[in-house]
Prior knowledge:
Strand content: under 5%
Structural class: mainly alpha
Strand order of the largest sheet: 1-2
Order of helices and strands: HHHHHEEHHHHHHHHHHHHHHHH
Distance between the termini: 68 Å
Amino acid sequence: MGPALAVVDAAPKLGIVLAAVTAAATLVDPYARRRTVWMGMSLVLAAVILIGHIDDTEQFRSLTDPPLRFAGLCVAGALTVVLLAIVLTRRPVAFPLLVVGALPFRVPIEAAGQTANLLVPLYLVIAAGCVAHGWQVWAGVDSPVSGRTRLPLLELALGAFLVLYALQASYTKDFDTALEQAVFFLIPFALLYALLREVRWSREIVLGCVAVMALLAIAFCGIGFWEYERRELFWNPKVIAANQFESYFRVNSVFWDPNVYGRFLVLAVLAVTALMLWSARVRVALASAVVLAVLWAGLVLTFSQSSFAALLAGLAVLAALRWDVRRAAAAAAAALLLGGAFAVLFQDTLKIDLGSSGGLNKVTSGRADLIGGGVELFAKRPLQGYGSGSFGRAYRLERKGNQQQAVSASHTMPVTVAAEQGLIGLAAYVAVLAAALWSLFGDAAWRATRGRAPPRQDGPPPAEGVAYRAARAALAAMFVALLVHTMVYAAFLEDPFTWVILAAGVSLAPLAQLGPVVRPATVRHAQPVPA
């Protein structure tokens, strides 16, 4: 039985690697028909691996018993995917709108007394997008990606990180977590990136995405206001219990974690702010101001320190892109210095003690201790780490006195990556960051948002060009905000927003750097136009 058990144990690990390789191939292969093959293989492998891994668990049996109900759920899911695929085949412009609309929603799946909050609506949209894209490609001509004139550095970096994560799952101390991260997040989000990269963006699609996001954020704020008024939350026993002992009441709206709710509101605020900054219409500015006031009120009730820090970083990026980089950098540095000085000088008023490790740990809600533990784990295995998804288990094993402590990550993304994947994974993580920042900020021409772009004979009309530059500025600010949030919370590539922002930024880059069109016998400098 020994060899047989070894094969059974190795099968899911090999399967994750194969699924990751096919997903990475979807990102980097320049030919459309081959990409659809990789895409289909990745979806099938991920589903087979997941079912094979959980088919003998109590959770899976509770879902498949009775079998008729499980069959009904499968049929309903398949019909939903087919209907969505038909809609997307006829109206491809609906795909980014459906993605933005599905991003925030997680469906609680109860099985055997346990609840998992899964992005079921988004998974259905991704599956439908893959079917629709495959149908369109195989009905057309096999050709390279249109407009690709340089090496896809970001796609290569993302694909390398994905494959490395799967490889390092082979020796992890927590294979279940690594498998879940790969199957539920990294692999489907890589396919989502590949689909969004093919979108033919227009001014209407850009504004539609902003409108969907703003409307959802306002609705979530309304739920949050209701929670605050009633002093009741829908879920998350940990936050409910904490609200009983704190002097303030945190809301989470439809989200599980107030920090995730705050992160979504921050991204919505940055999108609406960019619309307001690049629009010349007074009514757009007034409407945006009203929306921002509602979103700010909702954000305040989250009491999320990480979200406030992310918002400040994103607003600094918008200010730098809209007006002046040096002045924005100076203002941001001054704000940091003033904030730090205030915290140091008024520790008694703020009821904190930055001079002791306990006080710092209290201020950071336990993150200082987690970061210290993560650094210790990295020091013990600096090259390869403890394996993908292993931070929580390795932390408890190495710190014997914390066996019962609920730990999933260090809440500081570089520390988590260093502890789990060592210097190898840290290098891949830095490569992703560098490629992402270069893709969003690398072209100097698109930064000319005040009319400094040289006139050109080609490109979109002025209104389109300014809208694209405003959208790309918003995406750059949103990515920086996400990056800051991961430094004090968690979830970088496990967050679908990261992949959506990067894919949209890459797709809009060629459009956003184009200068205004030169009309015959008329040369006008670009000015802010109605968005």
